[in-house]
UniProtKB/TrEMBL annotation:
Transmembrane segments: 24-45, 134-157, 177-199
Role of this protein: Part of the Tol-Pal system, which plays a role in outer membrane invagination during cell division and is important for maintaining outer membrane integrity.
Any one Pfam family match given in the protein's UniProt record, by short name: MotA_ExbB
Gene that this polypeptide is encoded by: tolQ
Primary localization class, coarse: membrane
Protein name per the record: Tol-Pal system protein TolQ
Membrane topology term: Multi-pass membrane protein
Subunit architecture: The Tol-Pal system is composed of five core proteins: the inner membrane proteins TolA, TolQ and TolR, the periplasmic protein TolB and the outer membrane protein Pal. They form a network linking the inner and outer membranes and the peptidoglycan layer.
Location of this chain's protein in the cell: Cell inner membrane; Cell membrane
Annotated InterPro entries: ExbB/TolQ_transport, MotA_ExbB_proton_chnl, Tol-Pal_TolQ
Native source organism of the sequence: Notoacmeibacter marinus
């Protein structure tokens, strides 16, 4: 293994000095953990902003949906847009509704099943977007401490080999080598702690947003079910009135 140069006793050693004195394996571990930490923070910031935009979009859609305008008017407003959240679920259901009646659908049960299926698929796509990249946070949160520990073990082994070769065992000589090895564990913890905390927070936020969208899908399904029943009843009564 590569030998680590023992620092001269008595001098102050910065974190950069510890990094530069580390062996190439420990350096690779540190660099990898630093890059993972940077990517972790990028995901945290991006998902936090994305969830904030999603909450605002859900609030706006709910205000429009319950404002009293007709479903057809709201559908015409949203159909040409790139929608997300409840709007995407609404447009998906209304598109299936309109296609079915344009084709002369008469049976209520298959139509209701198709509408529910289209909303389930739209909800699944929205949840996939909300939960994207959260798995990386979970992976870093669980793996980074062990990766840092691996770097520490390799660094300590290399440091002990250098100590044995130099035949110097004073604390002033041993301490720098141990410190640079422990730096890998410290960087692993710095990467892991924010990742775990952010994963728990963002996962909870994603579940809350998903719950809101699922609740809307169920409520909208009930609204369409009533309208389907009303149309079916009107279609049945029309031939009787004609007779």
């Amino acid at each position: 293994m590569e030998q680590v140069a023992l620092a001269a006793p008595g001098g102050d050693i910065s974190l950069i000095d510890l990094f530069m004195q580390a062996g190439w394996v420990v350096k690779l571990v540190m660099i990898g953990l630093i890059l993972a930490s940077v990517w972790t923070w990028a995901i945290i910031i991006e998902k936090s902003l994305s969830f904030r935009r999603m909450r605002a979009a859900l609030d706006r859609f709910e205000d429009n949906f319950w404002s009293g305008q007709s479903l057809e008017e709201l559908y015409r407003t949203l159909s040409d847009r790139r929608n997300s959240g409840m709007a995407a679920i609404f447009v998906s259901a209304m598109r299936e509704w309109k296609k079915s009646f344009e084709r002369g659908a008469r049976s209520a049960a298959p139509l209701q099943s198709r509408i529910d299926k289209s909303m389930d698929l739209a909800l699944a796509r929205e949840m996939e977007g909300l939960e994207s990249r959260l798995g990386f946070l979970a992976t870093i949160g669980s793996a980074a401490p062990f990766i840092g520990l691996f770097g520490t073990v390799v660094g300590i082994m290399t440091s002990f080999q250098a100590i044995a070769a130099s035949k110097q065992t004073s604390l002033a000589v041993v301490a720098p080598g141990i410190a640079e090895a422990l730096l890998a564990t410290a960087i692993g913890l710095v990467a892991a702690i924010p990742a775990v905390m952010a994963y728990n927070k963002l996962s909870g936020d994603a579940n809350k947003l998903g719950g809101r969208m699922e609740g809307f899908a169920d409520e909208f399904s009930a609204i369409l079910s009533r309208q389907i029943d009303e149309r079916s009843a009107a279609n049945r009564s029309a031939p009787q009135a004609a007779a």
